[in-house]
Amino acid sequence: MSRLAPHGLKPLWLSAWFALGFVGIRVLYRVAFGGANGDGSVLAELPHLRLPAPFTTVSVGGTITTDGIGDAAISALPFAAIILLFGVIGTILDVRTLLLRVRPAGPGRAILTAAGIALATFPVLVAAVTRVRQAGRWRGLRPGIWILSPVLSWTVEHAVTVAGALESRGFGRTASPPTGVCEFPIEARNLRLSIGDRAIVQIDAWSCPPGSVTLVAGDTGSGKTTLLRAIVGLFQHLDGGEQSGMLRVGGVDRRAVAPRETAHFVAYVPQNPRSAFIATSVREELRAGIDLCVGDLDAAEYRAATITRELGLDHLAARPIEHLSAGEATLVAIAVALVSQPTVLVLDEPLADLDLEARARVLAVLTRIARTTEIALVIAEHRTASLAHVATHVVHLEGGWARVGAPTAVANFADSNDTAAPHAAISNLEPNDRLVAVCGPNGAGKSTLLRAVAASAGSALVPERPADIVFADSVAADCRRNDRARRLPTGTTLAHLQNIAPGVATSSAHPHDLSAGEQLVLAVSLQTAHAPAILLVDEPTRGLDPASRQRIAAVLQQCATTTHVIIATHDLEFSARLNARVVPLEAPGAVSVDDLWSTEVPT
After folding, report:
1. Integer CA distances (angstroms), 71 to 66, 516, 562, in order
2. Last residue of some domain: 417, 436, 462?
3. DSSP codes of every residue in 319-388
4. What pTM does this model have?
5. How far apart are CA 232 and CA 238, in angstroms?
6. Are residues 340 and 282 in the same domain?
7. Domain total for the chain?
8. Is residue 1 pLDDT above 60, yes or no?
9. pLDDT (mean) for 84-88
10. How far apart are CA 45 and CA 65, in angstroms?
């Protein structure tokens, strides 16, 4: 099988630019700190200053000569050559695949894990600069040194996520991992999951037989993701969480065995799968899933082809990961998880970002798995009614405690939890032209259309990930920054947030630690404090439980009293709840910006 890199000359060009940049930085360093003097022609005479104690050995400025510049550049060449060499290697070889195939032990595992994280993070670091600058423009912030903090923060966050993805997918596992064969794929007794002194999830008794489908339900922040990550082993081995009591997965003690050792029989689809991808395209991501499999790789390739066809992903093979919609990314992550043919499949809100057609495809696949295989499925989901027909058990989390129910409890819980507004109650209302919902399938171009509108004056955008436009380390600090950027009187943004969501305004938590709904409300407040003509919100219901969706609907309706609001969503039920005018979008370019308006919009 060929191991030629699939990126063409891109790694070589990137390394060449970085090598050139390193040489330039080295020259500037010499010029700034008095090391660019020499025998050649004098290019400039800068004031020569020596720093006071304790830095008396450091001088700034001085004479700049041609020889000094040349010496500085030459001194940087060995390091630049190493950077260029890595680019050549990355052009000739598919380094990611080679790393995934290696099974090192001892220190070698840590070194290769670091290399794998670096390879997956490097393109993200480059993209993060563009992403943060764009987010800054949406916030009305001028480019400046402030971008370093969010760029580094986002890159480190991504690196940690990739580390978890590599761990949970089996990178660096031993040559003889456990088999995972046992009577109950998941068993818990007197289980307590906590961080510090705070208990997050407690379960008295729970077991999942082969072929079972367990629906994990509960409000946003109830601990669903914590329980799922504990099953995978990431909570205990990566997140710094503590486990007491028994949790056995595949017959092994989850507290004692690292996730990489059980990855061949425990597969995980996280809540935000795009951030956990380790490759740059869909084809490479599937290839990585195949390379990390234990056993017959030809059989894994056949499974990958079958699954991608069943999920309707064939047309996405060459698509770069960053160009996937949220729903498309979820489908790809499910395909990658199924390639390893696990005995335990853990999915965190797999339906949250899917349109109706994609949701039907995923539900069909999950139903087939449940009825024809011995795979134990554990699914955390707010859309409980969609899974009631296939679930065999339900774990309802509330107040830190788990209530384990039988199949009859699944339907009862679904009926009580899905609190959608009756369509009959809103069908006779006239659509509100101040609220427009752009609705369409995954990949239709809804987000692209919103970004096109955001380029016009008087618009304010809340992106798909609201945390992307939150840059400070506290709610109050970001509100103050917004006042300065928008030239508002001090306290305006915080007062606006207090009016919309008092609990968020007084929160002492880091903005990125807020719940999905709280982050969205904060972002909406930041973007509407200066009273824009148009508010754009991308996928406002993403990751929200029914109660949170109701609160967000109320917030958007309140905003629509003073501002035109446009949302991009595949959630027709939410659009109906808003009484929004629906603009269908079936394919990219099918709707223009002008099509969004039935009345004149102020500018």
Report:
1. 9, 53, 63
2. 417
3. -BGGGS-HHHHHHHHHHHHHHT--SEEEEESTTTT--HHHHHHHHHHHHHHHHHS-PEEEEE-S-HHHHT
4. 0.76
5. 11
6. yes
7. 3
8. no
9. 82
10. 9
